Predict the structure.
Amino acid sequence: MPFAQLVIGPPGSGKSTYCDGMHQFMSAIGRKCSVVNLDPANDHTSYPCALDIRDLVTLEEIMADEELGPNGGVLYALEELEHNVEWLQNGLEKLREDYVLFDCPGQVELFTHHSSLRNIFFRIQKLGYRLVALHLTDSYCLTLPSLYVSTLLLSLRSMLQLDLPHLNVLTKIDKISSYGPLPFDLEYYTEAQDLSDMMPHILEENPMMQHPKFEGLNNAVIELVEDFGLIAFETLAVEDKKSMMTLLQAIDRAGGYAFGGAEGANDTVWQLAMRDGMRAMKVRDVQERWIDRKEEFDELERRQMEEEKAKARERPSDIDDSADEDEDDLEAMRRDFPHSGIQVVRRS
């Protein structure tokens, strides 16, 4: 039974960067992975693309032939893919049991009320895929109360529209400390509870909201989100290995992932960590690592990397030191995690 992630989110949330980093991470833990590009505007992918919608239709062709703008062209392209979904099905069959990452377009209409993307996913389900929708949002949204509330509404609408196992993810969490202090701890934002505590900060951000006519609207929005009780957030720093492992463990639980037989032989330390469910990062760990003590941890990682490089230079090149490296990795996992080694290319 193949598994897949449907990577959605607004523009700039880091979808392609995530697909690149997760593809590298899965390769490192021995999980065979392929990436499918469903964004007709994405003509420069940083990851190896197993299937590309641009082989079927390109945004430039649609805009020229149908006289549409960029947004309308993307919607048209997904409708075209829906009508030619056999092309996608045939391509997926060639991937066999690969774990698939679907890199989706950033137009929010596609995962809030337009039906084509949802219908395509339902057809993929009929092929036997276990799907998990991954809704990425730039953690910058935490810096503005109104933007955070808008993010909650967008996430909720996406969950109701797609009707799939769903995880919301705050990306670029390693940048959050550079945006200035937050009025609440990170756990408040990830749990999305007690939103009435946010009201004074919304009023402070925009004095217009103090008008009585907005009071009922603000209260209705808060009640709507809290009554559904569906929204919570994971966090992600895509270049941090422990952050990637924590998120992948959450995705595996949501999708019911079962480790295949091929993943049991000659496991690396990171493979064993994934299989054995090694302790994941809690929200308080993320708060400490990326907000409260970021500079201290950054300096610690820098020193660890320098020590590892020095040890590597001292070892004779003709000695097989793979066992020592695994022991070093395991010891590092018991302490604080060094840089992941995942190299991603961020698109401007």
Summary: Strands lie at 3-8, 33-37, 49-52, 99-103, 130-138, 166-171, 233-235. The two ends are 37 Å apart (CA to CA).
